[in-house]
Amino acid sequence: MTRDVAILIFPEVELLDFCGPYEVFAVAGREGTPPPVRVFTVAKEKGPILTRRGFDVLPQRTLAEMEAPHVVVIPGGQGARAAMLDEEILGWVRRTAARAEIVLSVCTGALILAKAGLLDGLAATTHHTVLEGLRDLAPRTEVRTGVRYVDNGQLITAAGIAAGIDGALHVIRRLLGTDHAHRTAQYMEYPWADGA
Q1: Which of 57, 98, 47 has its CA nearest to residue 77?
Q2: SS3 labels along the chain
Q3: Is residue 107 flagged as an active site residue?
Q4: Which of 33, 67, 166, 180 is the most buried (most CB within 10 A)?
Q5: For 13-28, what is each residue's pLDDT tens digit?
Q6: Average pLDDT in the chain
Q7: What is the pTM of this model?
Q8: What average pLDDT score do residues 21-38 get?
Q9: Catalytic residue among 80, 107, 131, 175
Q10: Confidence band (pLDDT; 50, 70, 90) for 195?
């Protein structure tokens, strides 16, 4: 079975927040025929997206074209503040999260999940500079500090920026097994700590 991974992107998205997980899923997907995973960037429209660091990215799919991915990745960045107020994005996040096997947020992507009402009663983490903001936005969420990611089952939140790589490797471990996750990390030359 091939699983589709949809990585949301939006203006001012943090580059490594989405590129780190993209690389993990792309590398993990290189093994096997058919591939075990396929990864796509997804945005409201097909036009160029200017990331937080001034890098233009062309999304591969629109929100309407990716309504039922198996895995959803919600990155952060300065643009997360605008994205969490965008009803079209929030609606897509709610709909896809309801059907997905796993939803992974990275950094301030947790704020988008919180605004969508998906963190109530769960534990979560985010970038260390935004922990208090997450507490304010999601008072019924247990906000954890000092961890790379928090796994609630279907919903996983990763801390800031590079922690998204750890979170994505954890997703690969859950979906495809520990050996596959270790091979992915080894191929990437990434010193995966193999734990939260």
Answers
A1: 57
A2: CCEEEEEECCCCCCHHHHHHHHHHHHHHCCCCCCCCEEEEEEECCCCCEECCCCCEECCCEEHHHCCCCCEEEECCCCCHHHHCCCHHHHHHHHHHHHHCCEEEEECCHHHHHHHCCCCCCCEECCCHHHHHHHHHHCCCCEECCCCCEEECCCEEEECCCCHHHHHHHHHHHHHHCHHHHHHHHHHCCCCCCCCC
A3: yes
A4: 166
A5: 999 999 999 999 999 9
A6: 95
A7: 0.96
A8: 94
A9: 107
A10: low
Please give the Cα distance from 191 to 163 (Å, whole number). 12
Q: What are phi and psi of 43, to 5 degrees?
A: -145, 170
pLDDT value at 173 more than 70: yes
Specify which residues 106 forms β-bridges with.
158
CA distance to 141, 142, 173, per residue, from 113 (Å): 11, 14, 23
Reported as a pLDDT band with limits 50, 70 and 90, residue 131 is very high
Residue 27 has phi, psi (to 5 degrees) of -65, -45
128-154: average pLDDT: 97
Cα Rg of the chain (Å, integer):
15
Above 50 in pLDDT, residue 196? no
Minimal CA–CA distance to 165: which of 144, 181, 151? Answer: 181
Q: Which amino acid is at 29?
A: G
